[in-house]
Amino acid sequence: MAEQDDNCISPTGKIRIRKDKMPMGNVSYSAHISNGKSAITSKKALAGVAKHNLRKYKSADYSSDNIRLIYGTTDLFQDVKRVYHREFDDVVKEYNSRQKREDRKIKDYFEHVAGLNQDMAVEIIFQCGDKKYWDEHWKNKNYMSEVFDYILECLQKLLPEFKIANAVIHFDEASPHMHVVGVPVWEGAKRGLSKKVSKRNIFTPQTLSVILQDKLRAEASYGFECYFKEQLAEKKKGRNHDLSVTEYKVAQERKKLADIKQQNNEEQEKNTKLRSNNASISYQIATQEQCHSRNLDVIAADEDRLETVRSSINAAETEYAKYEDMITDKKNNLELLSSKESELIERTKIAENVYDMFRQGGTDDVREKLIDVMYENQKLREENTTLKELLGKAYEFMKQFVIDGVNLLERFLESVGKVIGKDKVILPKCK
User: Into which CATH architecture does domain 29-243 fall?
Assistant: First the structure.
């Protein structure tokens, strides 16, 4: 691309409206206006335009990094509302002051127009150069920001009734293009508001032909020549009024269709391979699920057996507690009897001494007392023997049980030793 001509006006400087007839070249130019299905006749339609123009959605084809906002903000919806308030708040206030009936007053002109099913805003798409051209000159695409900025200034100068709200350049499609959204403001109405939104009165056939197709084409060619040293093509016969935005978008989508079909063929081949792999994986998963199911059955059976063992242990511990209390009582009685036995032994020794004394010269009264003592001693010995036998049987019973690897008898003797404060409990001799 050649350097910028010194005679060209930079978009940052004062714009120049060309009045001379420029020789035209071969680079295409188009200005597409919203119409029919693409018409912005509701808030929903306006929101859809905002979503597309400012890339407010996720797509593999488009990226917000490849757009350039040159007028307005990232909130197109609010940009349009600001134009409404700036252009119509005063005339709405004046109109309402003349109304005697409250129901005829307009509270919000933006909301009012949105409910009339008419064009509440207009979108124009400008494009210089087709896909073929930009395939060869794509590295210089960023210079189009300057060209489109110049076109936007010229549009404001040539068509001031079209109040621009937002303008954004797209670099992520086949060719760079600019989306301009604005409000057509018509003054001089004899009925209702003195100033209204009216696409029909602003974008007349003459406007479309003379301004968009003739004058703006010449200015666009001028700006394009400054940066690219090439001129735009002349207007084709029979295209005096221009394509609609819908037609433009259809043409763009057709360009993508061939690529999409190729991608679909490739994806089908991939899907065939994936289905084959999925069948193999599904078989493996089914096999693993069967093995898992069998393992779960084994685990369930083991848990049943474990629960049975736990029940047996609980029953044994309950029985142990019962015998532990009984044996503790017997042990206490044994200790008491042992104490009495010691007492009797001492009494016996005394009795024997008394008997010896009696033999040497005792009385009948002494003899009787001695006999009573010997009898009581014999009775206590027999009782002590019986208790020892019961304790031995209890010990033999406890030997039969093992809890947590420890003999029940050992656990009992340990606990009894702690209770009576002895380090060691002597077991009775087993029969």
Answer: 2-Layer Sandwich (3.30)
